[in-house]
Specification:
By secondary structure, this protein is mainly α. The protein has 8 helices and no strands.
Length: 146
């Protein structure tokens, strides 16, 4: 698990949170993060991918949450909403990242930035989505007894 990629996820979560609350242009947020945030050690390419691709695919990503979430995506805490969207994006589009890594990374972000029990919520939602979006990988892991 790459520390640079973990930092990219953390910064992307912060940037997506800002975008959700302010509606600022993504390029402005991108530039602001590059100039004003500590981006040392961050996988900047991955940060940019998450920051730009998630909003571009928002309807599709949010649709995956329907039926799994116990409320609408808009009713989810804004920090946890940003974390869920990163997790859903990675589960769907970054099959090079094992689903357990995706879930663990999002749970860690929720422990740091989310509500008190938010990490349990994130874990439950992403676990259900992994079974749907990565069924072959999830079943292979379950069948191997790990």
């Amino acid at each position: 698990m790459s520390r640079a990629r973990s930092l990219a996820r953390e910064r992307a979560m912060q940037a997506l949170y800002q975008w959700q609350l302010t509606g600022q242009e993504l390029n402005d947020i991108d530039r602001q993060f590059m100039e004003e945030q500590d981006m040392k050690g961050v996988d900047k390419k991955y940060f940019k991918e998450l920051l730009h691709e998630i909003p571009r695919q928002l309807d599709e990503l949010d649709a995956h949450g329907e039926g799994v979430l116990d409320r609408t995506i808009e009713q989810v805490d804004p920090v946890e909403r940003a974390i869920l969207r990163i997790g859903i994006y990675e589960l769907q589009h970054r099959i090079d990242i094992p689903y357990r890594v995706v879930i663990n990374e999002m749970v860690e972000l929720a422990k740091i930035y989310g509500a008190e029990q938010g990490h349990k919520y994130i874990n439950g939602i992403l676990d259900k989505l992994a079974a749907r979006l990565r069924s072959v990988e999830v079943n292979a892991r379950r069948n191997s007894g790990k």
